[in-house]
Specification:
single chain, mainly alpha, Serine Threonine Protein Phosphatase 5, Tetratricopeptide repeat, 2 domains, elongated
């Protein structure tokens, strides 16, 4: 009788293990979603991303993929909501913070967008090789925003920060680009250069001015 019970227990365990093995992981669901996106099946892609975050509430890639797809679909408010939910669960998800900054900027939430960029820049150091590309992407984004706003001193400060990081990383191509931008903007800005005289007491611009000295 004990032998029969043991056999039954083993059988149940094997069935359970097979069921578990057949359950796709969060990352596998995200991979499937991206494949659906590539074939222009947005509904199925969103369904897979939703399954991923339901399966694992800390699935950062699921929130990121869903938020970015919503943004591409023109659903800015929903994209912002999804990315914010992801950041609540995975606060250190820097890619989602940059994506949310872009969504917020597109929605006219300029202060909130700059807050996201500020958080990214403050969180990174020049020694973090893995963080550097994303930080540069964030600085490029905010430099572009300042260009749109014709806020040249702040744009110059952002490019100075990029130049600093490129030089430290010995990135010749980026150093060349950033040097050219800094030289051109220095001429345009003139006496309003944020390194010597920040025009506004804006915290983010002052922070960029400090790191550019």
């Amino acid at each position: 009788m004990m032998r029969v019970g043991a056999v039954m227990a083993i059988g149940v365990a094997l069935v359970a293990s097979n069921v578990w093995a057949d359950t796709p992981s969060c990352e596998e669901l995200v991979r499937q979603g991206r494949a659906y996106e590539a074939s222009s099946d947005q509904d199925r892609a969103l369904a897979r991303y939703g399954e991923a975050v339901q399966l694992d509430g800390s699935c950062g890639s699921g929130y990121l993929a869903m938020g970015e797809l919503r943004a591409r679909m023109g659903e800015g408010r929903e994209a912002e909501r999804v990315l914010s939910a992801g950041l609540e669960r995975v606060p250190r998800m820097r890619e989602a913070r940059l994506s949310r900054a872009r969504v917020r900027r597109a929605m006219g939430m300029r202060t909130d967008a700059e807050d996201d960029i500020r958080a990214l820049v403050d969180d990174a150091t020049s020694e973090e090789d893995t963080a550097r590309p994303l930080t540069i992407a964030a600085l490029r984004a905010v430099a572009g925003w300042y260009e749109e706003d014709r806020a040249r001193p702040a744009e110059l400060a952002a490019w100075r920060r990029i130049l600093f990081m490129a030089t430290r990383a010995e990135d010749v191509t980026l150093t060349h680009e950033a040097t050219a931008m800094v030289r051109a903007l220095t001429i345009v800005v003139g006496i309003a250069d944020p390194v010597t005289a920040p025009a506004r007491r804006d915290q983010f611009r002052l922070m960029l001015a400090r790191v550019a000295r």
